[in-house]
Specification:
With 221 residues, the chain is mainly beta. The protein has strands at residues 4-5, 8-11, 20-23, 51-54, 58-62, 75-84, 108-114, 117-124, 129-141, 144-146, 151-155, 174-176, 189-199, 211-219. The strands form three sheets. Strands 1, 2, 6, 7, 9, 10, 12 and 14 form an eight-stranded mixed β-sheet that branches. It has a four-stranded antiparallel β-sheet with strand order 5-8-13-11, with no helix packed on it. β9 (129-141) and β10 form a beta hairpin.
């Protein structure tokens, strides 16, 4: 029996600038005089101008590297596919050059995943955050390839959805819901979730050890 392995590497991007300045021009001065009898009194007025600049920041990680430190390693997801020959009329045994009476029904493939549940975190003050995936390197074994959209992702939190993976190139983006724990409005985003990666084994593929790479990008306007 043949075993297919599909390791999948994930890249993270993190950007974390934050600047807060206050500009206070020279204060204006006012004075007042007091009079006696019916003389008028003056009330002083002083104007003070403020200018506050808050730059945008985006923090995005998949795998290790919880806020505020980005991770330094690339996570790897693996899938091992093992064929299961129908046990009729004879149950097959594992081994090479082993004879078995097989009725010819196409086998199914059991998928064993490793490292396929990864923590994801997005933080930003730049408004609407969008996330999309890009196929950096196709899943390849020799001359054979598997479209990357055979890999799927489900998220543990609908507020931080996972993008649909494209067969190749760059896929469509999904929006992260603003707000979250510790935020004051929907323009600031703090979201965490677990993304679970799966593989579609329903389509037969040529045996081999396939490897490829994905990158994920978070963007703000």
């Amino acid at each position: 029996m043949n075993t297919q392995r599909c390791p999948l590497k994930l890249l993270r991007h993190a950007l974390l600038p934050l600047v807060l300045t206050a500009l206070c021009p020279a204060a204006q001065a006012g004075s007042a005089t007091s009079g006696t009898g019916n003389l008028p009194r003056n009330t002083p007025a002083v104007a003070l101008n403020f200018s506050i600049q808050i730059d945008k920041y985006v923090f995005f990680r998949i795998g290790d590297g919880a806020w505020p430190t980005p991770g330094g390693t690339t996570s790897q997801v693996g899938f091992s596919l093992s064929p299961s020959i129908p046990a009729v009329p004879t149950t097959p045994t594992t081994g090479n050059n082993t004879a078995v009476n097989w009725n010819g029904t196409a086998p199914t493939f059991a998928v064993a995943a490793s490292g396929n549940v990864l923590p994801v975190e997005v933080r930003s003050n730049g408004g609407q955050v969008s996330v999309f995936a890009t196929v950096t390197t196709a899943l390849t074994s020799g001359a054979n390839t598997i479209p990357m959209n055979m890999v799927s992702i489900t998220s543990s939190d609908a507020a931080l959805p996972a993008p649909t993976l494209p067969a190749s190139g760059t896929g469509t983006s999904v929006n992260v819901t603003g707000g979250g724990t510790g935020t004051v409005n929907s323009l600031v985003t703090i979201r965490t979730a677990n993304w679970t990666f799966g593989y579609n084994s329903a389509i037969s593929r040529t045996a081999g050890n396939y490897s490829g790479q994905l990158s994920f990008t978070a963007s703000v306007p």
